[in-house]
Design a protein that fits this description.
Elements: H1 2-24, H2 34-71, H3 73-134, H4 142-156, H5 161-175, H6 180-241
Protein name: UTRO protein
Organism: Platysteira castanea
Keywords: Coiled coil
Length: 254
């Protein structure tokens, strides 16, 4: 009777494993929204826990069959053969579910990381847009233009590492058919804004550099002219002081 019960337990265990495989491993999942992906991750975590909890039952079956084999070798030998099949299938099921759970957790982590990088770069784009707008109505002063140019250039020196991560993470998920529509839309919007603002910022940078150069040249010319007028003023003053008649002066002084 004990052998019959153990045989029944082995059959039930095998049936449960077949159902678990069909439910957790053979379903064709499509992750088109973050909610679907998150639900799938949670489901696989529960599946892993469920499968691992059966380890106690498997161990009890194994011990009972070994005990029976010592008392009734013939019955125990037959059950030991069936047990080995069940143990092998159980180990395979555990490994496959662990693997799928790990994969889904990695995919979810990849998605969260992508969102974080997008948030960082969006904040940078907002800052860049603000700096560009600040250069629109500058006072016509050398210091103001120079400060605006330096401020804009400091933002433009932003490293490209984050954008590289965004591109690679997004492509990895899209290639796997995971959240591909949502990610494509996000990346398209981000890249379009990045290209537009970058082009605008660089154009504004060039304009400020040209404006600054013109102002410096004008400032230099005014300085030279001022020095020249100062020299002439001092020379004319000396002529007046010495009471020199205008017709005795050089032609340029007259």
């Amino acid at each position: 009777e004990k052998a019959v019960n153990l045989k029944k337990d082995l059959a039930e265990m095998q049936e449960w494993m077949t159902q678990a495989e069909e439910e957790y491993l053979e379903k064709d999942f499509e992750y088109k929204s973050p909610e679907e992906l998150e639900n799938a991750v949670e489901e696989m975590k529960r599946a892993k826990e469920d499968v691992l909890q059966k380890e106690v039952r498997v161990k009890i079956l194994k011990d009972n069959i070994k005990m029976l084999a010592t008392k009734v070798p013939s019955s125990g030998q037959d059950l030991a053969t069936e047990l080995n099949v069940v143990l092998e299938n159980y180990q395979l099921l555990c490994n496959r579910i662990r693997g799928k759970c790990h994969t889904l957790e990695e995919v979810w982590s990849c998605w969260i990381e992508l969102l974080q990088y997008l948030d960082l770069e969006t904040a940078w784009l907002n800052n860049l847009e603000e700096r560009v707008q600040m250069t629109g109505n500058l006072p016509d002063k050398l210091d103001a233009v120079n400060d605006a140019l330096e401020s804009l250039e400091s933002v433009l020196r932003h490293p490209a590492d984050n954008r590289t991560q965004i591109r690679e993470l997004g492509q990895t998920l899209i290639d796997g058919g995971i959240l591909d529509d949502i990610i494509s839309e996000k990346l398209e919007a981000f890249n379009a804004r990045y290209e537009e603002l970058s082009h605008l910022a660089v154009s504004r940078q060039i304009a400020l550099e040209q404006q600054l150069q013109t102002m410096r040249e004008t400032d230099h010319m005014l300085q030279v002219l001022q020095e020249s007028l100062g020299d002439l003023d001092r020379q004319l003053t000396s002529y007046l002081t010495d009471r020199i008649d205008a017709f005795q002066m050089p032609q340029e002084a007259q």
